[in-house]
Amino acid sequence: MAKKRPEGIEKYDAPAGGWGALRAVAKTLAHQQVVAQGAATLLKANKPEGFDCPGCAWPDPKHTSSFEFCENGAKAITWESTAKRVDPSFFAEHTVSELWGWNDHSLEDEGRLTHPMIYNAETDRYEVIEWDDAFARIGAELNRLEDPHQAEFYTSGRASNEAAFLYQLMVRAYGTNNFPDCSNMCHEATSVGLPKSIGVGKGTVLLEDFDHTDAIFSFGHNPGTNHPRMMATLHEASRRGVPIIVFNPLKERALEKFASPQDPVEMATLSSTRIASAYHQVRTGGDLAALKGLMKCVFEIDDADLSAGGIGVLDRAFVAEHTIGLEALREDIDNTSWDSIITVSGLTREALKSAAEVYVKAKSVIVCYGMGITQHSNGTGNVQQLANLLMLRGNIGRRGAGICPLRGHSNVQGDRTVGITEIPNKALIDGMEKAFGFRPTDMKGHNAIESVEAIMEGRSKALICLGGNLAVAMSDTDFTFEAMRKLDLAAHITTKLNRSHLLIAKTSIILPCLGRTDLDTQASGPQSVTVEDSMSMVHASRGFLNPPSEMLKSEPAIVAGIAKATLGDRHGIDWDGMVADYDRIRDKIEIVFPDFFEFNKRVRVRGGFRLDVPASERRWKTESGKATFLIGRGLHEDPLVKNPDALVLTTLRSHDQYNTTIYGMDDRYRGVFGRRDVIFMNKDDLAKRGLSDGDIINVVALPSTDGKSRSARGLTAIEYDIPRGSIAGYYPEMNALIALSAYDRISGTPAYKGVPVTVTGVTTQ
Ligand SMILES: Nc1nc2c(c(=O)[nH]1)N[C@H]1C(S)=C(S)[C@@H](COP(=O)(O)OP(=O)(O)OC[C@H]3O[C@@H](n4cnc5c(=O)[nH]c(N)nc54)[C@H](O)[C@@H]3O)O[C@H]1N2
Ligand SMILES: Nc1nc2c(c(=O)[nH]1)N[C@H]1C(S)=C(S)[C@@H](COP(=O)(O)OP(=O)(O)OC[C@H]3O[C@@H](n4cnc5c(=O)[nH]c(N)nc54)[C@H](O)[C@@H]3O)O[C@H]1N2
Ligand SMILES: [Mo]
Fold it and tell me: Tens of pLDDT along 574-632?
């Protein structure tokens, strides 16, 4: 008889997608009470006249009007277009102390915020405030600071180009570059690492390249949940016979098999398509070793071919004309032993060889990757080794080949493009001066981690957030929460209530805004905004739903309100004019960033336009003018090698969540239902500790330099197909285990996916 599994843990055998996905959408629509207008809303997602789906940053096939079904896109849209409201009566009923005890799901599930609110310490409640008074309070607080560098301006990647651009204008006119950004916690390793390799911090492929590729390598991303529209691309590629080689510690269902809800045959016959042709369960944090192993195999195959009289398998013409640094790379790889590669990657030499054979056989290869690569203390190094692998065979800058980082938030890439950066370059400063007649400071500002440190130390006293849930998304929960409670001012531009709003500062203000799906009407009429997807395509997005409350303002209007109250008419910026007609914001964007030439005209063309990605055309904007092979750190520096007795914890998104937004408590594809308090463990790791499936455990982080103890207690261990030495738990709950100081020193990305811990059973009497 099969052993009884812990409560809520089941074997889920069905493919990803399929009828399971359709049922999940119906449930979501009903729960958010949007059945009537819900279906119509979904149909307008990613249409030429519709709005950009806030679910992910994967491009749409040429922005045609085909209705692309997507379960998690549907969740993102219905979560925003819900009929539920958080109005002043809600706040009158619940004190902030009471709300603090609610879980993250319940807080957001109450619905859309309807009124600007300010916290009153006497009643311990948020109370209504007029917009103008809210702006005036924020302006007064910002002007009270001795120095503009004492304020932090956070951006979450849902903000449109127009909102983000006005925001950076306000902050630069105010006088700082303190731009902590969700990108600092996400793809910063890409933004910092790739420019050194290939001269641009963005992906080089277009969607069409997937039609011409001969092999896809996928590292550390979970598209069935996080980039669901990508599944259509992978489904098609697999059917075309393209090998898809996956490196991921967990067997993610959608990377194994997927039934396309748009495929009538698969739906009718309950069949599905195999996605991965080979699945390598690399150890958490073992990608650097796996990549060095793959390159070692490529060199071995090349040597063998040359000695047999062949021409080798490296693209020698590309290497000679376009790159530097191959000799040094070769030396590093030669000096890396197979023993260390096998120990750290957890993969066999044969497995790596078989993957390398696919790689050298394929004429054109695309490498896709996500957070499993970037969120490590070696995140930047990992990204650069991916670029090395591609460059060995000239797989950058030609059809069907290239690097494809899976971006996170739907406009996180665009926000960066239009100036959200703590390290502005000269071109940005010059552009701002040209467009607005003042020269902003070029002093380096704070990234996300630095902003929390500065707040903790009292060096920063004010925090404005353009969306997001910074305190919950950031590592080191207790530390971060303590810091947030020290602020003089916290102001949140937001759609829904979350825990960051409950970390009360001396003055705490909630500024409710329109979302992507809402109609945005300004003095000149209905407005569109623009976003940039993972493949550098810029296109328009227009909401059409009646806003949840007449009190709401758009993000650009709120930014302008704060700006006017803070800056008065400093620099003579026409805030009202730009908010009245977003075309005027785009005209300014075009002056600052010449790449957006004829912005208003080109964005009105169906499908929008692509920004310049020089590496896609083999123009290398690196220091040397060449693509550069870069050396990765030695494997002996790996946390796995340094702490052989520890387990390495990685933190994951469930299928029912969008970052800190928890839509529901299930993680269907991993067989977890109704709970999130679990740790996925290998059965040998359980046995070694005298534990078995379902036991209650404590997870304790290895001490960090600050000597503080960090733990997560009372979790349930579940037996799972994951490599020995690697364990996994859910984000954001596990953030309490991660010291703020655990981050990639080059990019500042927190090491959310490589946390050395110990696990012990809790004895129950
Ligand atoms: N529905 C939904 N969509 C989303 C989001 C969401 O939360 N929900 N978030 C958005 C955002 S901001 C982002 S950044 C993206 C995130 O998209 P992903 O990058 O897919 O994010 P994660 O869930 O963090 O999972 C990463 C994958 O990496 C694997 N992994 C973990 N550690 C390692 C490792 O050391 N090596 C390797 N090779 N793999 C590893 C995990 O098993 C998992 O499959 O998705 C975006 N889209
Ligand atoms: N342990 C661990 N931690 C992680 C990660 C991980 O993998 N593991 N991933 C990291 C990553 S990749 C990221 S990107 C960050 C995410 O960090 P954030 O971007 O800060 O977090 P979100 O959860 O996406 O923010 C959700 C909130 O955004 C607000 N919101 C939603 N829509 C809108 C809108 O249209 N406008 C405005 N103004 N507000 C809106 C709502 O109030 C909602 O509560 O978390 C990081 N933290
Ligand atoms: Mo992200």
Answer: 999 999 999 999 999 999 999 999 999 999 998 899 999 999 999 999 999 999 999 99
The protein residue whose alpha carbon is closest to atom 8 in ligand 1 is 658
Q: 725 CA to middle of ligand 1, Å? A: 20
Give every CB contact of residue 246 below 8 A, 6+ residues apart in sequence. 218, 252, 255, 275, 276, 278, 279, 280
CA separation for the pair 365, 214 (Å, rounded): 6
Give me the percent of the chain exceeding a pLDDT of 90: 83
Query: Could you tell me which of 725, 731, 715 has the C-alpha nearest to residue 688?
Result: 725
d(CA 583, CA 600): 6
Is 512 a pocket residue for ligand 2 (Cβ < 6 Å)? Answer: no
Q: Look at strands 711-719 and 678-681 and give their pairing.
A: parallel
> Is it true that the peptide bond before 249 is cis, omega within 30 degrees of 0?
no
- The residue contributing the CA closest to ligand 2 atom 18 is 468
How far away, in angstroms, is 182 Cα from ligand 3 center? 7
For 427, how many CA atoms within 13 A lie in the half-sphere containing its CB?
11
pLDDT exceeds cutoff 80 at 42: no
Using one digit for the tens of pLDDT, what is the confidence trace for 628-646? 999 999 998 877 777 888 9
What's the pTM?
A: 0.96
**Does CATH place domain 85-185+411-606 in 3.40.50.740?**
yes
**All CATH 3.40.228.10 domain ranges in the chain, comma separated:** 187-406+638-765
Domain limits, CATH 3.40.50.740, in the chain:
85-185+411-606
Distance of CA 156 to the CA centre of its chain: 10
Range name among 3-12, 95-104, 217-226, 693-702 with the lowest pLDDT average = 3-12
Ligand 1 atom nearest to 75, measured from its CA: 1
| Nearest ligand by distance to the CA of 494 | 2
CATH class of 187-406+638-765: alpha beta
pLDDT for 67 beyond 50:
no
Ligand 3 centroid to Cα of residue 312, in Å, is 39
The closest residue, in CA terms, to atom 11 on ligand 2 is 186
Measured from the alpha carbon of residue 406, the closest ligand is 1
